[in-house]
Amino acid sequence: MPAPAGWSLGEADVGQIEQGLERALRTRSVPSSTEARLRFLLATHRGSTRTVATVLGVSQRTVQRWVTKKPGARRPPGPLQVRAIEEAVLARWQPRIRARRRAQSEAEGFVFHTRARFRFAAPAGSSDDPRVRWITQYLPGEVARELFAARDAGAGEQQQTVIPARALGHAYCREWGRRAHGLHTVFSDVEFADFSIG
To answer: Are 37 and 85 in contact (CB under 8 A)?
Structure first.
């Protein structure tokens, strides 16, 4: 997806938009330790190490070694398995709440909070020096719908960044089309991105 006319995109920090969306959809923090995540998966699957093993693509004995309380018998999961455990937990964390908050944001919009580098440039070539700015701006539901659709389609961070960037240009810089019609905006170096829903 190319950047829209009037926008230039730099290298955004990997995952800032994605992480912000994930935070907005949750009302409770995901367990931070691998041990706590394994406990959650076991609780979700009624204590079945066999089911958890199937979910993670490992043997039942492997899961049993990860969670055993026998002294000296426990074996920690490796890096690839730690990542698989994290992904399995994220996929199962607060599904009804996530769906409700997503539907709310798509219907009512959200407030976008970001710290990123902005520069305003006039068509004739004059420009302000780029500088890091804190921005807090309401964006409508259509932006949320576009952003979630892009994420669902597997869009990368830079592609996702185009969507709030374009919306900020219209809402924040041009006041919803009421001024600065020829103003072009550079949006890059996203340090932080968060979304307030409801």
So the answer is: yes
Q: State how far the alpha carbon of 166 is from the alpha carbons of 2, 40, 93, 139, 181, in Å.
A: 12, 39, 31, 11, 13
pLDDT 10s digits, 130-187: 678 888 999 999 999 999 999 999 898 888 888 888 888 777 665 555 555 555 666 6
Sign of CA dihedral 6, 11, 14, 16: negative
83-135 pLDDT per residue, tens: 999 999 999 999 999 999 999 999 999 999 998 877 665 555 555 556 788 88
Distances in Å between the alpha carbon of 180 and those of 27, 109, 121? Answer: 38, 24, 10
β partners of residue 132: 117
Burial of 80 (C-beta count, 10 Å sphere; 0-12/13-18/19+):
exposed
Amino acid of residue 144: A
Buried b (16+ CB within 10 A) or exposed e, 14-41: eebbeebbbebbeeeebbeebeebbebb
pTM confidence score: 0.72
Which residues, 6 or more positions from 142, have their beta carbon under 8 angstroms from its beta carbon? none
Q: List Cβ neighbours of 182 (8 Å cut-off, separation of 6 or more).
A: 122, 123
Helix (H, G, I), strand (E, B) or coil at 187: strand
